[in-house]
Amino acid sequence: MNIYHVHDFKEDEYSWNEVGRRKAKKNSYIRWLIMIVSFVILFIAAYLEFRYDLLEINGFLCWLLAILVFSWGFTICYASYVRKHACKMSLEERHDFNLYLYHHKYWKNPILANQALLNNAIILVKMKQYEQAAQALDAMHIEKCKAKEMKLIYFLRIIIASFEDNEEEIEKAKIRYTGIKDDAGNYPASELVENWIQMNHLEQMTACLEQIKPVKKEYPGLAFVVTIFLAYTFWFLGTAYGINRGAGYEIRYVFSAISLIVVNMGLFVMLILGIIWLHRHLNITSPVWIQKVVKFIICAVIAIAGLILLFINFLDVFLGLDDKETVTRKENGYTYLEVSWSNMGYNAYTAEYVTNNPFIMKKIYVPTKDDTFTNEQSDASNPDNTENNDQTDNDADSADSDTENSDSQDNTEPYESDEWLRMRNGMQAVYNYLIETNALENPEFTYSSNAKGETYVIVSTGQGTKDGNQVSVEYGLYYNREKTDDNGTYCDEYVLEKKYPGGTYDTQLVDFYLVNPDTLEVTDEHKTTW
Questions:
Q1: Which intervals of the chain are annotated as region Disordered (predicted)?
Q2: What domain range includes position 483?
Q3: Cβ(457)–Cβ(427) under 8 Å?
Q4: Which end of the chain is more exposed for a tag (fewer CB within 10 A), N or C?
């Protein structure tokens, strides 16, 4: 049975080296695991993007590139690890390790198949199984081989033909072997090979295989570090440059500062190592002094351009960072921050953000006593305060005037009272509950007031369909009244209303919520009527 004929090979009839086959199966499982983990990470990234709209398109593309680098890099790491430990395996284990992978994966790819077949041909020659070695060489895709691989193939053909004492095959292989140039100088000279053939020194020729294809040093640890660094670099730069600031998101200072230093230092080291490698491997066909000058100019230009890009990248991210993050309170697993930007003395400002992680925070609007609210069309927050949508313009103007007078009298203290703080904390607790239960499509937290001067929170805005028409929709959260829950505890009741700005349609009641003012525990009443 020719074990390299894919369609004729019967796996159950072959006498496997169980150690080699078990390691090959483990190799396949780990590669599948890397692929599955990459898809899970991709799914999480897509979920975060479409659920929270964290990134703009350039940032999301960088995240995808980071996942690609992660998957590809870990595959290379593991392949390097396998090659490093292959030298510790016996020849039989290595042969069946390659054979299993060839039949289950590599045969579909001519390049990978050639690598497995050539390695097994060398192993079989060392094991003096010349017939199977010839079968492995016959199964190779010669049209996909490079010159150095072709020279090795014909050297193996010489050894096999010498064992079989086939003069015709020896002559053919020797002519082709001699005709391929040896640039690296690893192959024995044609005259020496001719002498070995005449003396039938198979052992001498077989021993040369170690010189022709020496075992290269593998550095899986270095490949692992580079993979992690590059994946993190793309992920961080995608977050820093592509975060959706229009939706109120910002990256946090400590995460950004540390990542910026690590990324730029790592890229600097890689730039230097890349220039050194280029200087050593850049071949220019010209006199020595011209070659040195050209190499110096090329390396200098790359170094200067790289350093400028690194400096611009550092400044661009660093100057956009905030100056100070002060924790104001912690509620329901969320941390509220007062964040300050100095902007180098120009247009300095402070804003409040909320977060539950060390990487990203989202801006919220917190009113102060100096804030001026936008007057809205009168809306109902309870039965006693309901206004008809068809009220006259004079009534609305009168209500606006009353509101302005009231604001001018009470604008000095309203947001410092205990009553206001209790209402604000309750609204924030309901908003967090709505976020956790995915009740809002486009969440926001913006304070406003209606024509009667009642403060409420806009928790979501967007577009909807009503009676076949595309209309604007706004969800507002109002304080209703104090009410006891099922346990007899006094709570604050809040009502969520769905409004249609412009007064085209009536306001709808969406739900009612009870908030314990002491624990800020939220209870959904699941009702839509007063």
A1: 372-421
A2: 418-524
A3: yes
A4: N
